[in-house]
Amino acid sequence: MKKKILDKKNINLSRRGFVSGAALSAAGLAALPATAQAESVAMCPAGGMVAWKQPDNNNGLIVQQEQGPSNIQTVGTVGLDYFGHCAFRLTSPRGVTIMFDPWRNDPSGYWGVWYPKDFPKTKVDIGLSTHAHFDHDALDKIEATMLLDRMVGEFEFADVKITGIADKHACSAPGWYKWTDAIKEFGQSPCPPNNPHHMDMSMYLIETGGLRIVMWGDNRHNPSKEALKLLGKVDVLTLPVDGSQHILSYDQGDSIVRQLNPNVVIPTHYLCEGVSITLTTLQTADEWVNNQKSKMLLKSSGIQLNLAEVKKMNNEFMYFGANTAT
After folding, report:
1. From first to last of its 326 residues, what are the pLDDT tens digits of the chain?
2. What is the C-alpha separation between 98 and 95, in angstroms, rounded?
3. What is the pTM assigned to this prediction?
4. Domains in the chain with CATH codes
5. How far is the CA of 275 from the CAs of 280, 293, 321, 323, in angstroms?
């Protein structure tokens, strides 16, 4: 794999999107004047506000409903398709589809352009977002029959159980780009207990096909003991670690892996050719993955997960690289 190095000297950090207004938008839209807030919402309304435009219907859910619930421990194949950044589509053995953390560009413009093209219109049964940042909350860009935005608690349907676990966003930038300083510049504390709402997080534990899959989102490296207890045994874990160490450092990511001891680890939130660009300040996850003992460089944007095969693995890093469904 060719390693890409980000030269921070060549990044135009003087632009409005990275300095004076950096804390506004997904990481601080509340700080905007009321008129600007309204303008941003109008540009990119919430998913529920555009659902009436969707051409499809809930016929598939009615069929699943009529079949009744299935035991989530019943072994079956679980599909996982990568859409870049932290976005995944999960398909349960019975065919229930779930999209996690679809991305968009910051509607206020303060964070600049991260994605040169729109998130693809994708039909799914359920859409979920881990937190209210623009690179995770584009629920209006998908065609979902149900939206469970920043859900906390338990949801069960067909052969899927989703547990939303409330915790906090990483609030201390370990890498060279101290993006959390922008929040402080607007008089807010990025860290709990007085953090603004956009620094709240919902991690998701998905149980289906006998597997326990965790969507970490941008959660901090040291969740509460109660949150870790709810996660329990993890078979597949996604973690936001990239070469710039934007959300988690290499050491923090490794520590989480040691603590949860998942069979499979999937890197997220990295610079992904064809999806994100260098204005994100991100780098690839190549270096972190290459330092792992056991790794698999995937050749496509989708994988099929089966309990028997997953249980044979021990901290196996599955890296999509630039292979995405977009």
Report:
1. 443 333 433 333 333 333 333 334 444 443 343 333 333 333 344 444 678 888 889 999 999 999 999 999 999 999 999 999 999 999 999 999 999 999 999 988 888 899 999 999 999 999 999 999 999 999 999 999 999 999 999 999 999 999 999 999 999 999 999 999 989 998 999 999 999 999 999 999 999 999 999 999 999 999 999 999 999 999 999 999 999 999 999 999 999 999 999 999 999 999 999 999 999 999 999 999 999 999 999 999 999 999 999 999 999 999 999 999 98
2. 10
3. 0.85
4. 8-319 (3.60.15.10)
5. 11, 28, 11, 10
